[in-house]
Amino acid sequence: MAKYSLCRRAALRPGDERHSAKPSRAPQYATGVAVRVRFAPSPTGFLHIGSVHTALFNWLFARHEGGEFLLRIENTDTSREVEAATDQIQESLRWLGLDWDGEVTFQLDRMPQAQEVANRLVAEEKAYEDDGAIRFRMPDEASARTVGRPTTSCRPSKTCLTGSRT
Question: Which stretches of 75-110 are DSSP H helices?
C-alpha cells in the first residue's frame, strides 16, 4: 500500500526522494529566507496533546518546506517549572518521531540579549516602560507625540516584551 503525504501530494513510495524526513533543499520565499519554525513548550508539566498538535504541525511544515524545526524551552515561569518536564518533553517528541534541528535552547538564556534590545528601543523612543514592562510604541502614538498631543493609554492590543498583555 502506498503512503500519502499529509499535504495531499502524489503518493510516496519508500525510496522516493520526497519520502525522506528532511528534504535536501530549502525553498526561498519572497523575503529570501528559508522556513524556520520553533516549538516552545513551557516545562510546567507533562507535554499536553494540544502542544503535541502544535509541534506536529510545525515539524511537518518545516520538513515539507526543507526548513528548520527548532526546540526552545520557554522556562520563564520559574515558579511553576517542573524539574523533570524538560526531559519528558524531549523524550515525548522523540517517541513521536519528531526530531529538531540544532541544540535545545532555553528562553532564560537569552534574557540578557532581550534586555539589551528593550533598553535600546526605549532609548530610541520606539518603546516605553509601563509598570515594569517594556511596551512597543504604536505608530499612532509616535505621530501624536510629534504634534504635541498626549499619547494614548495602554490598550489591550499592545504586547510587552515580557510576553504579558494588558
Answer: 85-95
Strand 36-39 relative to strand 127-130, pairing: unpaired
pTM of the predicted model as reported, rounded to 2 decimal places: 0.61
pLDDT(20) > 70: no
What is the C-alpha to C-alpha distance for residues 150 and 163, in angstroms, rounded to an integer? Answer: 26
Alpha carbon of 37 to those of 46, 48, 104, 133, 140: distances in Å?
A: 22, 19, 13, 26, 31
Q: Are residues 100 and 137 in the same domain?
A: no
Do 45 and 101 lie in one domain? The reply is: yes
Using 50, 70 and 90 to split pLDDT, how confident is the model at 132?
confident
Residue 25 has pLDDT above 90, yes or no: no
Amino acid at 123: A
